[in-house]
Amino acid sequence: MKTHLSNTRIWFYCTLAFLPVFALLTPLQAQDILRRGNDPIPAQVDNMYLQGIRYLAKSQSSDGSWATGNGQDPGVVGLCLLAILAYGEDPNHGPYAENIRLCAEYIMTNQNKENGYIGHSMYNHGFATLALAELYGMANIDGVEESLKHAVDLILTAQKTNPRGGWRYKPDSKDADSTVTGCQLVALYGARNAGIPVPDSAFEKGLKYLSTCRSISGTYGYTSHGGAKTTLTAIGSLCYSLAKQKDKRHYQRSLSHLKENIQTLDSHYPNYFRYYMSQALFHADEASWEEWNRRNARILAASQDTTGSWNSNRGAAYATATNLLSLALNYRFLPIYEK
User: Is CATH 1.50.10.20 correct for 41-337?
Assistant: First the structure.
């Protein structure tokens, strides 16, 4: 049972009374509002989510990071920020406004003022950039626009100097892989959605690189089409969904693989897998996502700690944020979740 509603969430529920007015909006604008009225959020999911963000709020350090595991990585802080925003929390008002601002300030503090690089790896940079993009699209907070533009420039510069057209661990890397490339592409889509200019060529080059990691069966490998993994296939599928290229034959083959493995779990990176699998299926096939969502909710309900957290070898903040984000498609407040 919720004990609060942020201004954003109150606004949403109030709009349900005015659906005829919103029906005049474009399909993209009206989609989530119309879908929501006929799709109540499962109580189990809502309870888990609220317990999870309460944990994140209570365990956050005064500098905006989390003390354990990888909780001081800007990318993890970005994922925590996304998890809070995904619940419809208002960055300017409400019980988590201060947590949101602390996250944003931590990310911006850890950005190189000269080249825009955030953290110590492109993973950190990509997730932190996506968080800034989603925040910028939802609220006006001092410094976020400039920081986001600087971060996007770094991603674009890194791609221009990469002979493969993708990205790897460092901005000056000359090789690439599907996970880091997918991370940067999603961040760029988030930035473009928020109104930051991103050239079409950046997406085209990134997708072209991803195609070199795709097998004839539609599955994706790490640095080539060999050694395919379901997690990597989910990343590739998500990027093509965001590119509005779901009509491609290879996309349907990727989707077939995801459907066939809907009850499997990546034992090495389970939280990372959930984060991407939920998004890939949501954008690809509603019935498959609903089947996945029910199963995912059951598994997470059984493994959530009494503190509201989940844990992993990368720490509770990382595990809690990624698991919450795997449930966040039930809410669809983040702009990046728009179909």
Answer: yes
